[in-house]
Amino acid sequence: MDWPAGLLKLLHIAVAMAFVTGVVGRWILVRRAAGSDAIDDAHRYAEAAEPFERMAIWGSNVILPIGMLTAWAKGYAWFGLTTGWIVASVVLLLSVVPFVPLVFIPRGKVFDAEMASARAAGQVTPGLRAAFADPAVTFARRYEIAAVSVIIALMVLKPF
């Protein structure tokens, strides 16, 4: 066994597991927060999603470089970018990146303001409900989960 390539592959898989855990964990807790009628519960669920958010952010920043190093260490030409399933995976992963500055950051600031306002009011406000139901964020999160699901399938099946 080629130990450096094997260790990089193991690291890549570990980072992928952390990334997927972050994406899915965040999704579950934010959905629970959105469904809460009590502001304290909504806030607790939203706060509990924070570590998962950090895992998703960290994983998304690290997974591509480690994956490329793994492909290189395993002997793929051009860091694997000549293999269809790797190219497709990279394109899907990179297609999520524009959501960060265009959706997640600006809408996250709106959400934070609405949560603070709702906590000051002592109830789940219509503004907070609207922030939870923001169609741009909902689309971006669903797209992110779909893209990650397809990437996992491509990495396991290596169809082309």
In words, what does this structure look like?
The chain has 160 residues and is an all-alpha fold. Helices cover 82% and strands 0% of the residues. Helix 1 (3-34) runs antiparallel to helix 3 (50-73), helix 4 runs antiparallel to helix 7 (135-157) and helix 5 runs antiparallel to helix 6. The model has no long low-confidence stretch (mean pLDDT 95).
Blueprint (SSEs and pairs):
Blueprint: H1 3-34, H2 39-48, H3 50-73, H4 84-96, H5 99-121, H6 126-132, H7 135-157
Helix pairs in contact: 1-2, 1-3, 1-7, 4-7, 5-6
Q: Which terms summarize this structure?
A:
single chain; 160 residues; mainly alpha; 0% strand
* Mean pLDDT over the residues: 95
Task: Quote the distance from N terminus to C terminus.
Answer: 24 Å
Radius of gyration: 18 Å
Largest sheet: none
